[in-house]
Amino acid sequence: MNLTHQLYDYNLKSGACFFNNEIVGKSYSHKTTWEPYVDFFSIDLDLEIIDEFDGYKLKDFPHNVREIRILHDFDEQMLNWFDKSCWISLKMRKTMSLSPYETDEDHNPSMTATLSFNLNNWHNPYTVKEYATEFINYSRRDQDKSSQGTPYTGPAEYLTILVISTDLYMDEELKVSYNRIINLIHKTHEAVNESLGSKTFQESVATQFSFPEHINEVCVQYLAYFTKFLSDLGIETESTIVTQASNVLFTIFPLDENQALEQIREALTIYLNMPGVTELESLAYEFSDVSVKQLAATVYHLKSQLLLINAELELKNATIETLKLSNYQLTLSNKESETKNEESLFGGVVKIDELEWKGIKINWAEIFRKLKRNNKRSKGD
């Protein structure tokens, strides 16, 4: 293999790596200061370059190559958890000691990926610490890999990382090794996310939506107001909104562990159907509490935005039904509430007919009477 490197900055000991006399990446010198003097170097390769090494195994690389690093970019879905890029590091041969006191065993070939949490965009239904801890525990249970990291939920300026590692096989090609650790990252992440998600959903109300792309943003804004609607009803909660591909996962967590989740489900049913009620604004006009006024304004804003967007796209089906966000639900959190007889729910505000969730009867005036803004609680709003 014709792979060499040349220094350009002797102070930083950095330069360029050449393969068949063509530049393929950056190189960094690690020359030993003891005998025998060896000019080790590491390489940073762009992802598209690794195809140049097809047919070559890792053992074919020169013996003075200490490490190969490849910058991997995550797809958009993974940005809910991690920063856009992570370094994949292939630490090569046993014989490449950088100290006269180190042995071959100190340099078993290994491969690592360094993952940085996206703390500024963390909107998952569990904390960074919970994710990191579960990630580490899952990795340690798998004999094919190990993991280390810092399960710390500090301010965004503190870089919080996880490192996942696995064995490196010198008989593999570079691309095979790279794909293996990327698959390992996704496999571990999916297992951890599923495990934490199943635990979280037992203590929350989770609903999944699939909004058309052209109305996704305004619908998500409307969902964000739901916690304030609950607060005005006397139910204190927190919520998360996670967008994955074309789906939106909306999860509500009651702050009071004794709060009945069924009440939150019923309130969500009411809230999702409000935009489709033609007389809502006129009914709200009769009430003076600021909570009613703000709710009516929120509903009106959503309706006007949806109608405007549909008009711009010249959609002919912009009917009242299209204004109901419940029509875009994939997972109906109150589907389990099927009853044989008409049942009074939420203090008589909602009635659900026999075996038909869309046959909801809602006493809107009674809802508005129950709404009351607590000035102390809302002082910071």
Beta content comes to 15-25%
For the residues shown, what is the average pLDDT? 76
Largest sheet: 9 strands, mixed
What ranges have pLDDT less than 50 throughout 5 or more consecutive residues? Answer: 94-98, 150-159, 331-345, 350-359, 376-381
Tally of individual domains: 2
Write out the strand line-up for the largest beta sheet, numbering strands in chain order. Answer: 1-2-3-4-5-6-7-9-8
The N- to C-terminal Cα distance equals 65 Å
The succession of helices and strands, N to C, reads EEEEEEEHEEHEHHEEHHHEEEH
Question: What percent of residues adopt helix (DSSP H or I)?
Answer: 25-40%
Please report the total strand number as a whole number.
15
Structural class of the helix and strand makeup?
alpha+beta
> In DSSP terms, counting alpha (H) and pi (I) runs of 4 or more, how many helices?
8
Broad shape: elongated
Gyration radius (Cα, Å) is 29 Å
Structure, explained:
- With 381 residues, this protein is of the alpha+beta class.
- The protein folds into two domains: 3-200, no CATH class; 205-370, no CATH class.
- Helix content is 28%, strand content 25%.
- It contains eight helices and 15 strands.
- The protein has helices at residues 128-141, 174-201, 216-224, 226-232, 261-273, 280-284, 290-312, 364-370; strands at residues 3-9, 14-19, 22-31, 39-45, 65-73, 85-91, 110-116, 145-149, 161-167, 205-209, 237-244, 247-254, 343-345, 350-352, 360-362.
- Helix 1 crosses helix 2 and helix 3 packs antiparallel against helix 7.
- The longest helix is centred in the middle third of the chain and has 28 residues, at 174-201.
